[in-house]
Amino acid sequence: MKTVGKKIKRIREDYGFTLRQLAADMGVSASLLSQIETGKASPSLSTLKGIADCLGVTIARLIDEPQKQKDVFVMKEKQRKSSKKEAEGMTIHMLTSPDINKQMEPLLFKLEKKASSGEKPYQHFGQEFVLVLKGALELVLDETEYVLRKGDSIYFNSSIPHSFKNLHEGVTEALWVDTPPTF
To answer: Which CATH architecture has domain 2-62?
Structure first.
């Protein structure tokens, strides 16, 4: 069972959960979860199922049984990793799990009032898709301004110098998809 515990710990850390967060989500003590991860306690089948459900994986993955490559990945909202850029007033939430084989990176951008990507436009290899979910966003592509409001979307080559800012008085939220992944 020590191998199972190590696997649980590795997957938990890969998804950005602390021991306490996962234990709270499962409704068990952090002490029990720690004992399972260190191999000092064996999880019951229901506990193993609870761990798998909270991490969004199968029991087979936790006990290291061979598994076919997965074509479908589910990420629960509480599993999202995010990075907050205090200076720009922006939080970026990762909407998928890490996978070296993925070909796109869907992200949720939350921009506070007056938040922006910065004064200078930037460019990189790839393509981008943006769908405004809430608020209003100004996107500048090679000096041409596009105003996008809730429900509006845009698709462009990332090699075009671009920048963006929140035009809304409150928080603007946008689904942003980059290909290839840049995060």
So the answer is: Orthogonal Bundle (1.10)
Q: CB of 83 within 8 A of CB of 63?
A: no
- Tens digit of pLDDT for each residue in 78-126? 777 777 665 578 988 888 877 666 788 899 999 999 999 988 998 888 9
CA–CA separation, 24 and 114 (whole Å)? 36
pTM comes to 0.61
- Are 121 and 161 spatial neighbours (Cβ–Cβ below 8 Å)? yes
Closest to 174 (Cα-Cα) out of 145, 137, 138, 133: 133
Which residue ranges make up each domain of the chain?
Answer: 2-62, 80-179
Going by CATH, does the domain composed of 80-179 fall within 1.20.272.10? no
